[in-house]
Design a protein that fits this description.
There is one protein chain. By secondary structure, the protein is of the alpha+beta class. The protein has a domain at about 30-105: Up-down Bundle (Bacteriocin As-48, Chain A), CATH 1.20.225. Helices cover about 30% and strands about 10% of the residues. It has three helices and five strands. It has helices at about 35-50, 55-65, 70-80; strands at about 35, 85, 90-95, 100, 115. It comes from Lactuca sativa. This is DC-UbP/UBTD2 N-terminal domain-containing protein. InterPro entries: DC-UbP/UBTD2_N, DC-UbP/UBTD2_N_sf, UBTD1/2.
């Protein structure tokens, strides 16, 4: 038994409806980067997601959620049936159990970002 926030669904994973999405913890890149470099990293990640496996619709929903405000991101995740394992969306699953990992740089900005 556990509290409602930690209950499991039939696949043994917590449902996104039971986990409130949060912002990722502060992070820093290995070097100071600017907005253009961060956007390039993000674009490269999203362009290569088909090679990581999983369903295209789930990747599209995760991208929409990553780029949205928290309350809208929660709605997107719930509507897509995504199972959230980590509240900051770094680890999620689809209903068939495929794992989706998002790097923090697609979810938030680094603490050491510099102006152009």
């Amino acid at each position: 038994m556990g509290c409602a926030k930690s209950s499991n669904n039939s696949s043994g994973r917590r449902s996104s409806r039971q986990i409130t999405i949060t912002k990722p913890m502060p992070w820093s890149h290995t070097e100071s980067i600017n907005r253009d470099q961060l956007n390039k990293m993000r674009d490269e990640f999203w362009d290569t997601t088909p090679f990581y496996g999983g369903k295209r619709e789930i990747w599209d929903a995760l991208r929409a959620a990553a780029e949205a405000e928290l309350h809208l991101a929660q709605t997107i995740i719930d509507s897509a049936g995504i199972i959230v394992h980590e509240p900051d969306l770094t680890v999620c699953y689809d209903e068939k159990g495929a794992r989706y990992e998002l790097p923090k740089y697609v979810l938030s900005e680094p603490t050491n970002m510099v102006n152009d």
